[in-house]
Design a protein that fits this description.
The chain has 302 residues and is mainly α. It has helices at residues 5-18, 41-56, 61-67, 69-96, 103-111, 117-150, 157-171, 177-205, 221-234, 241-246, 254-279, 287-293, 297-301.
């Protein structure tokens, strides 16, 4: 006897609700030693926040300092809204194509109608790898600056870079987000919050003398364009969404994680950029300049 439409709909709903799909990258891993589908949406949100916010916060005040208070704030908010929109596009694409695990897979699907699936896969894969390399390089640079500040420059800068590179490699060894990276993401989020809070407090405690806040600031096209790229890059990191969603217990909950990510990042970016700019002129130009101008206590906190 053929199953009724009602039972079919019930089966489909249950499968969707539980995030079960035979096309998924990771399906039934009950009997496997490594469990991939372990992330809840709050855990996924924390990982997304860690990936995006940690690298973009300190560069944002430059946008306000260069283009002015009002345009800089509008740009940051607009980029946050646009990032939320593009997040939903990627999530919908992933839900419609559960077999997609990275940008290379997405490139294969997008270019296949033109007979260029292999080309699309390689191009987007190369872009993902290059983005990941530059992202890790940025984190290694920040780690080097942190160690150099904490030790008051007792060793060669390359030594600090080598030490932090080894630490970064060890952190990347776990094969799943839930297998260690989830806890590290929470610690990273807390450290970023503490660092930015200290930076905001420091900009108020030691403000730039005769600081004048302007609504708009005239600049050359090159300078303004370079400053505007900071908010754009501050929201970059969507390339990892496919992989994170693949490890979620319920992939459809990824939109909740996206809402949490973009709401938190946009509000935090605006607050940090505005408060820092009100206190110090050009607070966010580069991290090394902050460390050089801060009091001896602030770098150790950040």
């Amino acid at each position: 006897m053929a199953p009724s439409k009602t039972s079919e709909l019930a089966t489909d709903f249950t499968a969707t609700d539980l995030g079960i799909d035979d096309r998924e990258v990771f399906t039934d891993d009950t009997n496997h030693s490594i469990k991939y589908r372990t992330l809840s949406w709050p855990a996924a949100a924390v990982i997304m926040i860690t990936e995006i916010v940690t690298g973009g916060t300190l560069t944002l005040p430059q946008a306000i300092a260069v283009v002015g208070f009002v345009p800089g704030t509008i740009i940051i908010v607009f980029c946050g809204i646009w990032a939320l929109f593009t997040s939903f596009l990627l999530i919908d694409f992933k839900l419609n194509h559960p077999e997609v695990h990275n940008m290379g897979d997405a490139g294969f699907i997008l270019f296949s109608p033109f007979g260029l699936g292999a080309v699309g896969r390689e191009v987007l894969s190369a872009g993902t790898i290059l983005f990941a390399i530059t992202g890790v390089g940025t984190m290694c640079l920040l780690g080097q600056l942190a160690l150099q500040t904490l030790s008051q420059g007792g060793m060669c800068s390359m030594s600090y870079l080598g030490i932090w590179t080894c630490i970064t490699f060890l952190v990347s060894v776990p094969r799943t987000f839930g297998g260690g990276l989830q806890g590290l993401s929470v610690a990273a989020c807390i450290s970023v919050l503490v660092a930015t809070l200290v930076a905001m407090i420091g900009s108020g405690v030691e403000p730039t003398p005769n600081r004048v806040v302007v609504a708009t600031a005239p600049n050359s096209f090159y300078t303004a364009f370079l400053a505007i790229t900071n908010p754009v890059l501050a929201y970059a990191g969507h390339f990892l969404f496919f992989t994170i969603i693949s490890e979620m217990k319920v992939p459809r909950d990824s939109k909740k994680a996206a809402w949490a990510l973009q709401t938190f990042s946009t509000i935090w970016y605006v607050v940090f950029a505005v408060v820092s700019d009100l206190g110090e002129s050009g607070m966010g130009i580069v991290l090394t300049e902050h460390i050089g101008r801060w009091s001896p206590v602030q770098p150790f906190c950040c």
